[in-house]
Amino acid sequence: MSRIGKLPVNLPAGVTAELLSGNVVKVKGPLGEMTQKVDADITVTIEGTTITFTRPTDQPRHRSMHGLYRALVHNMVVGVSEGFTIKQELVGVGYRVEQAGQLLTFSLG
After folding, report:
1. Which pLDDT tens digit goes with each residue over 17-45?
2. How many domains does the chain have?
3. Cα 61 from chain centroid (whole Å)
4. What is the rounded distance in angstroms from the CA atom of residue 81 to the CA atom of residue 27?
5. Kind plus residue range of the DSSP H or E element containing 64
6. Contacts of 14 (CB under 8 A, 6+ apart)
7. Which residues contact 16 (CB under 8 A, 6 or more apart)?
8. Are 62 and 70 in contact (CB under 8 A)?
9. What is the residue range of 45's domain?
């Protein structure tokens, strides 16, 4: 079984999930709401604060989709609860980088 696919997705406080018709997962949180259509072969189960994914067979197609949809829904939960941040570290000599709000100014050569 897929190491990623078999892990349940835990919902933090303030985040709700529901399974809509057509195997669509809807996740709603303080930072917004997102939806993801899951392949019809993958079974989605929402019980309390956990979402689990199961696959019908061990075919390569089912194995790959099992982990894929679990990862996509987990990323949706993180996105509506915490949001995403990018942390970059620039190391080297011969240039200078300054941050002004969301913009980076590079002084090169």
Report:
1. 999 999 999 999 999 999 999 999 999 99
2. 1
3. 20
4. 10
5. helix 60-81
6. 29, 30, 81
7. 27, 28, 29
8. no
9. 1-109
Say if pTM beats, i.e. exceeds, 0.70: yes
Residue environment code for 72-84, b if the CB has 16+ CB neighbours within 10 A, otherwise e: ebbebbbbbbeee
Burial class (CB in 10 A: 0-12, 13-18, 19+), 51: buried
The alpha carbon torsion through 19, 75, 81, 28 (nearest 10 deg) reads -20
pLDDT-based confidence at 2, cuts 50/70/90?
A: low
The amino acid occupying position 104 is: L
Which residues are 104's β-sheet partners? Answer: 99
Tell me, what CATH number does 57's domain have? 3.90.930.12
Number of H helices, E strands in the chain: 1, 8
Residue 15, Cβ neighbours under 10 Å: how many? 20
Q: Give the span between the Cα atoms of 92 and 1, in whole angstroms.
A: 43
